């Protein structure tokens, strides 16, 4: 592991827990045991470090879901893969500060445009992926023809992110589990053919 990877592994959870503004250079040097100069030999600035830390957090928390979806056959199976993954999401990210997409999206909107754009792009990718899954389900006769893919993709993502916010706010994963039960029993069951 090179120095940049060591730094990222130590500071990625700090950025995710404390936010971009809440993470100081002192927090970074204390966590890594390195000097400011050593940090900036590996990263252009705090924004660069925060963006790469965000990408690492995404690789650990969300990329595995995308990989699981890719190997599933059928739209209904893919949608259930998402809800099943989310049921374990709280335990996966609780020690890392919660959902990185949610954290970065809220924390950086007005202060770090590059990091905010990365979170926004990920959210759009998630919505686009859900829309494609639903469209494929319509095409493959798994999902009702009159289903609005964009609308349902946004509702599903809203339930995922909203339940994640509440689970971490209240330190209670039942918010996520209840939302996933609702997606399974009301949304997926409701649009299934």
Structure description:
By secondary structure, the protein is an all-alpha fold. Helix content is 79%, strand content 0%. The protein is built from 11 helices and no strands. It has helices at 3-22, 25-32, 36-42, 46-61, 63-70, 75-87, 89-93, 100-108, 113-139, 149-170, 174-191. Helix 1 packs across helix 8 (100-108), helix 6 packs antiparallel against helix 11 (174-191) and helix 8 (100-108) crosses helix 9. The longest helix has 27 residues, at 113-139. The chain is elongated. The chain starts with a helix and ends with a helix. The mean pLDDT is 95.
Q: Give the amount of beta strand, in percent.
A: under 5%
H/E series, N to C? HHHHHHHHHHH
Instruction: Output mean pLDDT.
Output: 95
* Helical residues, percent: over 70%
* Total beta-strand segments: 0
Overall morphology: elongated
Helix count from the secondary structure assignment: 11
Distance between the termini: 49 Å
Based on CA atoms alone, the radius of gyration comes out at 18 Å
**Largest β sheet strand count, sense and barrel closure:** none
Low-confidence segments, given as residue ranges, are none
**Main structural class:** mainly alpha
What's the topology here?
Elements: H1 3-22, H2 25-32, H3 36-42, H4 46-61, H5 63-70, H6 75-87, H7 89-93, H8 100-108, H9 113-139, H10 149-170, H11 174-191
């Amino acid at each position: 592991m090179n120095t940049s990877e060591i730094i990222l592994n130590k500071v990625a959870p700090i950025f995710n827990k404390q936010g971009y503004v809440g993470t100081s250079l002192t927090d970074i040097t204390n966590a890594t045991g390195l000097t400011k100069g050593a940090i900036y030999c590996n990263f252009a600035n705090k924004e660069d470090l925060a963006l790469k830390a965000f990408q690492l957090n995404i690789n650990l928390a969300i990329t595995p879901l995308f990989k699981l979806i890719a190997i599933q056959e059928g739209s209904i199976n893919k949608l259930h893969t998402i809800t099943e993954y989310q049921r374990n999401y709280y335990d996966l990210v609780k020690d890392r500060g919660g959902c990185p997409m949610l954290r970065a999206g809220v924390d950086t909107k007005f202060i770090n445009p590059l990091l905010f754009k990365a979170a926004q792009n990920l959210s759009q990718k998630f919505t686009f992926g859900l829309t494609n899954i639903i469209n494929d389900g319509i095409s493959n006769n798994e999902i009702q023809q009159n289903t609005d893919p964009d609308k349902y993709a946004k509702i599903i993502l809203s339930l995922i992110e909203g339940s994640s916010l509440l689970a971490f706010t209240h330190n209670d994963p039942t918010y996520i589990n209840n939302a996933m039960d609702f997606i399974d029993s009301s949304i997926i069951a409701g649009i299934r053919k």
